[in-house]
Amino acid sequence: MSDYRNVNRANWDERAPLHANSPAYALERYVADPGLLSGVVRFDLPRLGDIRGLRAVHLQCHLGTDTLSLARLGANPTGLDFSPVALAHARSLAERCGAAIDFVESDVYDAVTALGPERFDLVYTGIGALCWLPSIDRWARTVAALLRPGGRLLLRDGHPMASTLDDAREDLLAVTYPYFETAEPQVWTGTQTYVETDGALQEATTTHQWNHGLGEIVTALLDAGLSITGLVEHDSAPWQVLPGRMTCGDDGEWRLIEGRDRLPFTFTVQARKS
Predict the structure, then answer these.
(1) Looking at CB atoms within 10 Å, which of 19, 34, 54, 121 has the fewest?
(2) Which residues contact 146 (CB under 8 A, 6 or more apart)?
């Protein structure tokens, strides 16, 4: 199982330069506009509330655009990711934007050791993070260990029900892939990434991923000693989950063209440590 880290890290190391040059991440816009926030963080604003002065850790931060956005909202964030290539871009972006952000290279399961004794007011995890982790229980224990008493988690991620769907089917919503966490990963191979890029993956084209049911996620947080303070299911996602069947709104979120009330595409869970 430990090999999944090497397989996935190689994939993310190769993705990072493609993403850094992609119009979807628009890194130059953050340099040009000191007030720009990422679409992911803008969506989370009503639930984030006032985070000025809070010590925050952004797990699986990738290029750091969401981490930078937390800093622009007044938090004192640390970004953590296992890809050194992604972190090089994140550090460069923060420096060019004049933001004092620490970025730490570590697998998320090793975050407590990598970050040392400091405990945080906010653990933040954005879209597309949990599917790379084989054990949701271990993730929840890590989150709990990172939080100070009174600290909170805010996670928005792809809904596990949406992750079961066959995105190649245009005639119906076909449940094809596992909903619940499985011992073995789903193994995917492909040269394309999830945003428009000028290039394609050449070598590290395989990834290992897992789904985690919504009940499994909530139960893992409860078992780790956290109290659930909010759970919202959303009819939208910041990417086109089902190509050809969704439309993008002015808010940058994709929704079903027909039958929006049939399926959640993302969810937000909030939890607090007593």
Answers:
(1) 34
(2) 57, 111, 112, 115, 119, 120, 123
